[in-house]
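Quick log. Single chain, no ligands specified.
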Amino acid sequence: MKVTITSIELKSILSLFKLYRYSFHVMNQLKASNCASYKTQGFWTIHYTMTLWRNEEDIKTFAHNGAHLEAMKQARSLAKEIKTMTIDANDLPNWKEARNLLKNKGKSYH
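-> predicted structure:
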């Protein structure tokens, strides 16, 4: 199993409305995908997602299609920074562990 952990730090609070609009469509896509489990958390300008997948192919199929692909195309206009990482795990970690993993090992996109 694979866990993908992602954070997005918005450029400003004004970007929150656009994030919510994209998130609505991405969540619908996620619910219809092969994702085994997910969690989201966020407040103000920092938001996190964790997803559990059976394999790398399912991650790629989700990430490079539909609403998620469209959201990624707009990410630079919304985000100050995006961090992501994928690890081997059978369950989603707790939020404290997930944030530490991103801080220490996540790949950053500006």
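DSSP finds four helices and five strands in the chain.
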